[in-house]
Structure formats: structure tokens, C-alpha cells
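Narrative progress, year one. The postdoctoral researcher (J.K.) led the effort to move from monomer predictions toward full complexes, under supervision of the PI. The following entry was the first complex the group processed end to end, covering 625 residues in total.
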Amino acid sequence: MLKADVEVDRRDFTVRAAIEVGPGERLALFGPSGAGKTTLLETIAGLVRPRSGLIELAGRTLTRTATPAVAVPPWQRQVGLLRQDPGLFPHLSVRDNLAYGRATDPRGAELTGLADALGIGDLLDAMPTRLSGGQQHRAALGRLLLAHCGVLLLDEPYSGLDAVLRRTLTALVVRLATERSVPAVLVAHELADAQAFANRIAVLDRGVVLQTGGPDEVVLRPAVLRVAELVGYLGFVPVAGRPDTVAGIHPDRVVPGAFPARGLVLTGTIAASRPAGAAFEVDLLCAGVAAGSRSSSTGSSGSGLPGSGQAGSGQDGTSPDGGGSTGSASTVVTCRLAERPGAEGETVTVTALDPPCFGPDGSAAGGRTGSVPERAAS
Amino acid sequence: MIWIALLGPVITLLTHLSWHSIVSSLSYAGALDPLVVSLESGGVTLAVLFVICTPLAWMLAHGSLPFPRIWEAGVLCSLLLPPLVIGLLLVFMVGPYTVFGNVIAHFNLSATNTFLALVIAQIYESAPYYVVGAQAAFGSVNPRLEQQAALLGDRPIRVFRRVTLPLAAPGLAMALAVAWARAMGAFGAVIIIAYHPYGLPLQIFTTLQETGLASALPYALVLLVVALPLPLAAYIWSARAQGRRRG
């Protein structure tokens, strides 16, 4: 079990974070660049000294600033850190790199067995520079596992690799960490990477853990508006009958058609569309939706509530605000649709599935449009 | 053309030497004593530089000294001092009437016109070159690799031995080779505080003055022969080490 509750001073802000990761559990620290994710990892590794806090690993105190103070040096922490640069020693063969850690036999069965499992069994006598990026990462991972680290800290290790290789290596880490019951912490600024890896995701922004939850929970039920922004909600539209409350629209949680029981129905004209992977990304100009504080408004005048009578059906009072009643404006809502949309200027009706709502202070306002009971009923 | 021009002095030396003149100049008794003196003093100088200046270079490269710019400026200053000026100032620093001179006199040592004086002069002429080169060599080692070694369980001294030193070794070898060449050719400071015993540069100078250019040239060849192999070997070894890392 890894426990870390620390405050670390950075030049621009203080990282205040508390995490717990059990044996075999995988936590992803997700957040934008500069959020303090790497600082937190380096603090756990003993490379950065915290202003205050407590770090424990498997019941052993690694850092304690309170009296009696403890600061176990990095070489005694048994913490494995893997960065984007695999950090293989260029003057040593792959075999010697793997055996670098504590008392590992370079010819031992454990080393060769793990090398085979990692798919680098026939590269043991090669020098690291002869390896591809993926092979170098496999070797670096093997080195940490052979060193019998008590925790794996992965600092965006695969961000420079292609998507397929990234998924393969992530699956490999997940399997090996689970088999060995090693707690693992991944830093990621791509949500998909974090979700593919973790049991739990901690969303970090400017040094603060905004929310910790399951891989789907942080997307489906973001605790605050900032989390919603970070996990990909691109549009925020006002909610009728609830002043200063906005509903978040995630591009991937939009389906064509009107399904008031399942969420928020929006009607608008297609402002632009473009291929996005196997889907199509559409900018929908929802005229008459009063611009929420975070929505991107075109500023044009509204012409009545889009899909009047459809938007949320008003069943739970969380439909978009009525056209013009609160100062209408046109709002661009981005959504990804599986099928090619019509031409620009055509009118389209879509349903944002179970959108989360946020109050004026950015906290979750509870009671989402298209509530769960309704969805269940449907 | 530029390459040939740079090698002009060496080519000129070879074209102006005959086997007969080399044999006649170097065959009398004690003719090779300056060579022995230069090799011994050069070896001691290198050993002292490696032991004393390597930690300084490491600390400069890691910025672990307070006010690092001041330390670097000090090294640069000693690099820029003309050797003759170094010799003059060394008289006031380690001469017989100085504190240092008095202290070593108690051990029947002197830093004027002795082997010790020759070593001191060579150290002062070559140390800045070694420190600057070694600092660059240590600075080229990725600190993330040293961190990784520590996280894998190595104490700092073990990290230095297993990671830092091997990775910096090619650069250190080149720095040592340059320092060796500077030490072997040290003249400006040497002529002031270590006129005796003669090393090769002073032998060349005195032979030139006493018997002329033709007699001095064989010693110049000897100096080149002993001064160049180490830098060349270091260069070749360094290139091969880099090649091995590339696999």
C-alpha cells in the first residue's frame, strides 16, 4: 500500500495532494501539463523534498516532515520510476541493464523469464541504442520489476510512442503489476491512456486533486466544472429553471435524434463538420441557447429555443433555458457522430446523454438532465 | 589545404631531420635524461590532476558549489593567464621565502629548481585544461540516468562508479590527454621556477641556444613522439567507446 499526503512548493503554486494505492491497484494521475503530477511522483520517489507531509510504502515511512522527521534517500526507497525517456544505461547491454538493480543475477532464470515475457529475450546482448522505442520501454519496465520495486511510478512513459504500441505496453504493465501485486501510479495527460491503465483516476489541476473515482466515473459524473473541462466536456449550456446552472456537453456522449428521457435534446444548424477517426465531429450552432459561462458563443441573436419542447422535455426542470428569456445567444456545441452529418446549414437534432450540471461556483449541481430513473424507465 | 597548413610544423620537422642528426644528438650519455624527467613529471602531474581536479570538475558540472559562476570564472582566469606570468607569480607563492616554501623546507623539499617545482609548474599550466574538459565530460552525462541508478538502489558513490564515470570516461580521457600534452610542453612557468632538472622543452631551449637549431630539432621530435601518442590513443579509445554504445 502506498500512501502519500504531501505539500510541495513549486514556483507557481503549491501541490497539495493525498493519494492511496493498494497492492496491485493502479491509479492514474490525470491532468493538464504543469498540474503538478510529475512533482508528486518525484516527491514519492524522494527526488523532491516536500514542505510537509507523510509518505508510506508497505507500512514503511519514506518521508515524514513532522517530528521525528524521516527522509529515506532514493536508493533505499525501493521505488521504481519510469519516464518517457526509458533511461537505459547506454554503456551496458540490455542484460546488464535488466540486472542493474539489487542483486539480480544476469544469467538467472528470473531475468531470462521476464525478458521472454516482455518480448526482448533475444535482445539481451544488444546495446540499448539498437533497440526500438518500444523495446527500450520493455527493457526499462523489466529492470524495475527485477529490482523488486515496492511501487511503480510511471511518468507518461509512452507518450512518445504510437497508439497501438502504447496500448500494448499499457496492457503489459497492467498484467505484470497485477500479477506481482505492485501498486502502480501512472501520470497521464491523455484521458484514454489513464482509463486504459487505471482502476482509479485522480484528476489533478494546479496541484490539487479535484476528484478521484473510477475510470468512467470522472467522465460521467465530474465533481466540478473544471474536471468536466479536463475530461473533455466542450460545451456548457444553461439549464432552464435553475439560474446559473449549466449542463456539460461531451462530444462523445451525444447521439443523433431526440430522446428526452435520456438527456438534453438540442437542435441546431451544422456550422462545420470534419472527420474525427471513424466518426465525424460536428459543430452545432444551437441558436437561442443562452450562453453559459463556459460555452463558446457566437454572439448572434437567438431565434427561440432550439427544438422547443424537446430540450430535456422539462420533466426534471433541467432543459436549456428558453430562447431569449435570459438573454439568448447562439452557442456552438461540438459533438461526434458515428454517421456523416448533413451539409452545413442543415438542421440537426441531437441528445446529450445524461449531462452533468454545475452550479455558479463550478461544483456539481446534482440532478442531471435526463435523470437516471427516466433513462431506466425508457 | 587548411588541414595541411595546420600540420605544416610537423611536416617541416620531419623534412628537416635526418637519421644521422637524430642519432648524433641523442646518442651521448644522458641525452635522454630530459625525456625521463618529462615522462616522470608528466605522470605525476596527471595523477595529481585526476585525484584533485576530478571532484572539482564534477561539482562544477553538477552546480553543487555555492556561487558556481565564481568558481567557473576562477578556472577560466587560470586558463587565460599567460604561462610566463604563472611562473613569475609562483615564485611569490611557493618560492623559498614564502610560507609554503618554509613549510616544505622542514621536509628538506624546495619548490624552486627541483622535480617538485617542475610538477607544480606543469600542474598550473595544465590543470585548467583538464578541469574545463572534465567539467564538460561530466556535464554531458544525463542526470536522469544517475537518478535512475539511485532509484535502483545505488548509493551516490556507487552511482558515480557504475554510471557517471563510465559515461564521462571518453570525455575525461580526452581532457587528460590534453592536460598531458600541455604538461609535456609546459615551458613558460617551468623556465621561471624549474630551470632544473631539464625536461624536454627546456632541453630544446638550451640546446637551441648553445648548439643551434639543427641540434634542437631531434629533441623536438622526441617531445612530439612522447606527447602525441596519449592524446591519439585517448581519441581512438573515445571514438571506439562511443561506437560500442551505438552497438
